[in-house]
Amino acid sequence: MKINIKFTITLLSLCFLSLYSIAQNNVEVEIDEPSRVIFISSDKAGNEVIRILDKTKSPKFNEHNTPRFLLTSKNDNFALGIGGYVRALASYDFGGIVNGLSFNTSKFPVPGTTGVRNQYQMDISHSTLFVKLVGKTKKLGDIVAYINGNFTGDNYGFKLHNAYVQFLGFLVGYNFGQFMDQPAVAPTIDYLGPSGMVNYRVIQLSYTYDKLK
Asked: What's the pTM value of the predicted model, to 2 decimals?
């Protein structure tokens, strides 16, 4: 699925500016003491920040955990986490299965081809980078801004996976579709065929009400 990167970046820029404005209006700062940002480990962060981070984590099997370190505001109402990991993949093709690192079973030639036999490959394009801003406000409740992706685009370009802002039950941006059951997604490396049909992302403006039992 192709998405409009310029539209997404513009939308996120406006959302981050709105969040910054909200943060400025809700954080009380004494006149004789300048505001400051604190760099701490996540296990030392305030209870509200950790609650928001845990509550807003996707239940999908391979989603990112809370970053090990956070930048927090003085009163622990806002926190910014930057995380990711480097993933290296190596493969050796004994029998001529497929010419490429992606494990797409539908592309396996039968019988195997001699053109790619005994082929050795290494790749780090699945390395991931993500940024998550969370905050607790009086007017908009819990606020979340999240961006993540890897480098599986053309020529190892950055491929956007999620980019959204969430508040008061609303979600604006690019995220998993609302007609999918994230905990039911099969833990697989093959996203083609039936195992991948329940997994999709889309640009959306959605609302979720989670107060009913």
From this structure: 0.71
Of the candidates 100, 89, 92, the one whose C-alpha atom is nearest the C-alpha of residue 123 is 89
Cα 105–chain centre separation: 26
pLDDT at 18: 52
- Name, in order, each residue with C-beta under 8 angstroms of 28's C-beta and a sequence gap of 6 or more: 75
At 11, list the tokens. 């939308």
Nearest to 43 by CA among 80, 73, 9, 70: 70
Q: 116: alpha, beta or left, given left = phi > 0 and alpha = psi -120 to 50?
A: alpha
Residue corresponding to tokens 């920040």 = 49
Q: How far is CA 116 from CA 39, 96, 102, 121, 124, in A?
A: 49, 5, 14, 11, 20
Pairing of strands 201-207, 141-150: unpaired
Phi, psi of 194 (to 5 degrees): -60, -35
pLDDT digits (tens, 9 = 90+) for 149-165: 999 888 888 999 999 99
